[in-house]
Write the structure tokens for this entry.
Amino acid sequence: MKRWNIKQTEISDSALRAVCEETGLSRPAAYVLATRGFNTPEKAKEFLGLAEDEIINNGIFDPFLISDMEKAAEIIKSALLGGEKIVVFGDYDCDGVTSTVMLVQYLTAQGGEVDWYIPSRDEGYGLNTAAIDLLAEKGADVIITVDNGISAVEEAAYIKQTGMRLIITDHHTPPAVLPDADAVINPKRDGDKSSFKELAGCGVVLKLIMALENDTDSVLEQFSDLAALGTVGDIVPLTGENRVIVRRGLEIMPCTENMGLYKLLRQSGFLSDDDSRDRLTAGALSFTACPRINAAGRFAHASKAAELLLAENEPLAELRANELTALNNARREEENEILKQAEMLFAKEPERLSERVLVLKGAKWHSGVTGIVASRLLKYGKPVIIISDDGETLKASARSIEAFPLMPLLEACSDLLEKFGGHVKAAGFTAKSENFSALEARIKAYSAAHFPQMPFDVIHIDKVLCEEDLTLENVEGLKKLAPCGEENPLPVFLMQNCVILSKKPLKDGKYISFNVRMGSVTQKILYFNCTYNDFCFENGQAVDLLVTLELNEYNGITSVSAQCKDIRPSGFQQEKTFAALRTYEALIRGEAPDPALITRIIPEKDDIKIIYDILRKFGENQINILRVYYEAVSKNLNYCKFRIIIDILAEFKLITFDIINGAVLLLPVSGVKANLDNSETLSKIKTMLNNCINI
């Protein structure tokens, strides 16, 4: 379960009308922008790239506002004129690969002697002395880093000793002391005068090319397709210049002149027909093309991805595109295998799921996919740390929910770590294997001290829908908010007090569609994250829905399409439910709750009978546990007591409870009557509560 949060905005009706009139936005689109802070015509225009300013061209600020841009442009132009050898030093992820390709293509087109180098994952991120020596042996005169280099203080000094010149282009947070390079281009530098600080590495490279070319539009036309791919792949905010880059890139991708990108998009399921072109969105790229680029660096070498995007003939492009698809399939298999092992650990030790932070360790799990697995396990609503242990070294990837920042946690564990870094919701570290037990204990202690009441994962709601919002014109207007992604998510809307009219399975029951009535409006809902059998609601029931909206065209008829993201019974009391969930998890962790809650926690025989009778209605069919809970709530059973009853029934083998899939199954009665007084589950909880009272 996720907590629903309705965003608030203080925008008045007249101000909302002014935003619509001056930007051409539909009313729902303008309201969504207002909830995200763009609540005046000026701010909305800035978001949409309509602001007028002499330093802005096509939504892109003057590249020379970035520190050292002019200096870097002069060095590169001089090197081109002098026939010096330039080496572009990249990184092995999607951002690093696209950054490398863009700059190599541009410098080569200018007649330069250009080479490129991307380290392997085993070699490590960024500049290293062995690579520097190799480039020096090959006669490099100028090294230009892309998507790396801002922390390479020692390596920059080493390059200076060799007599080579170094230009750093990066977007990561700079250290207190910058490398001693000939130019350091990073919009996050102290004192930098550029207006937008959240460019990806490929965005910084794009602006370097604009400075070299002294033009914005032609560079966007030529390179925004690759820059869009890298920007989406790096999960940077899709606001400001990033939004301009990705929007322009998506426009030109269907007719891209980059042979490798064309083949990559075809392999990813796009450009084969008009419908697939419509589905070419930032979100679609992040799940299809970007993982293929990243798979090269994870399972082979990123050079395969770079060679794909640099390919000038169709056979090579086809070969590399096929290789990347094969590597991505291998990535999926490895990812699914680790996920399977992780969930087997949860099934074997279900109490793990009640921990504040989910920490899982496996022998030689592939470190290239542990981050993806951690992201998938966020479905349990907790921060996740996935650790690969080779017997000597722990390599970990961590992912977190909104209100639990990871870096303070890792800083609190720093004496046990060899290296760590990351952001609020994504981080990683390495440590010695012998430190695992101490590290796990430290993570638990930190989490308990700083988050005695753990936050819940949240779905933010942009607007409560009115009947008049569900028009073709209003939903069409939402397209102006695209491209959607990090910090500019697809708008989520709340439909309240909807009555379910009918439902039917899709794809043999893998998905479900259902019709609802909201006031006088009837709307079809598609639900792809739920099977038909797991759907918890019956015809005639009143529900609240979280949906995204788009237009759908079928047989020449255009209609509003709504996709369900979450669903609850109308009137659901989420604060009481989450408070009871916290209490249940505290009990499982052995933490005694407030004694005042005891009477609401301990189930009686009649309470157990209520749940058992609910399950009997479904016979020998597996049932979603939430479906049982929603009925239990209507009979005044709180979530904590409900889960204790489920545990007791499982203990007596009256049911099976698949904690991974949230499925409950009633078992045939053995003939031996269960005695509640013999329940170890209940006895343990009562002992804990009695100790709490005695204290």
Observations:
- Residues 232 and 292 are 13 Å apart (CA to CA).
